[in-house]
Amino acid sequence: xxxxxxxxxxxxxxxxxxxxxxxxxxxxxxxxxxxxxxxxxxxxxxxxxxxxxxxxxxxxxxxxxxxxxxxxxxxxxxxxxxxxxxxxxxxxxxxxxxxxxxxxxxxxxxxxxxxxxxxxxxxxxxxxxxxxxxxxxxxxxxxxxxxxxxxxxxxxxxxxxxxxxxxxxxxxxxxxxxxxxxxxxxxxxxxxxxxxxxxxxxxxxxxxxxxxxxxxxxxxxxxxxxxxxxxxxxxxxxxxxxxxxxxxxxxxxxxxxxxxxxxxxxxxxxxxxxxxxxxxxxxxxxxxxxxxxxxxxxxxxxxxxxxxxxxxxxxxxxxxxx
Length: 322
Fold this sequence. Notes:
alpha/beta, Rossmann fold, eight-stranded mixed beta sheet, about 15% strand, globular
């Protein structure tokens, strides 16, 4: 009996610790960000990490900072930046740590509080002291953390399908277990093997289509833009870091302490984060404005840009600068 037990322990140890390093990693394109810099973008280095920044307007104009969501990038705001520029705003979009063309590494903090501090540093690098922050999906959580850590730099907040992870909705065991496992090299190696094997272009494209109410709007060009980060060296390690640190990025009911004027925008047909989550967020932000974009899914700023830009600009124009 003891011998059988030792055999099982040895087998489990082999599978969990030895096997992942015996299996070869599936190959990947292994490009560098320098090959893919978008038109109008430039690289900046913030806190030792390089990211890409797109900037319109000029200093002295009211500032707007656009923060993308999970698997998003500066590309997410391609319809929003021109509208803000035409309306007389100084607006920036950039890639959060680990996303888009930003540096890909496992050894940094991807928690939403750390991402919020990264936003603050990018703002400083762009010469912006105070701004309206617009956060989509995961970016909504980042700007909420920003408002609680850098309140003096916030004019207004706009949550677009904001993915606010409530502590009460996130199992405490997962909050502790996932980060613990992903700090272990065998788990990291297994994670790389799984990501490179399962996150194929076809599957990633299917996920992108699910975010649209009208999938026909997802052209091959848009699909390629969303697949682009997977061609970069270290993308899988960055994704593991994001998974590790997102689990501890929950927000308490103290979200109600945010006093900046806020707007919550949701796509009418968002199946990824349904309207009920928007209503919940609205209740956590007393006095916040509310807008629903018809015929849109999880990406209203892309799927219905005219309607989205009208809602955003109306809020910016009627809510006073502080």
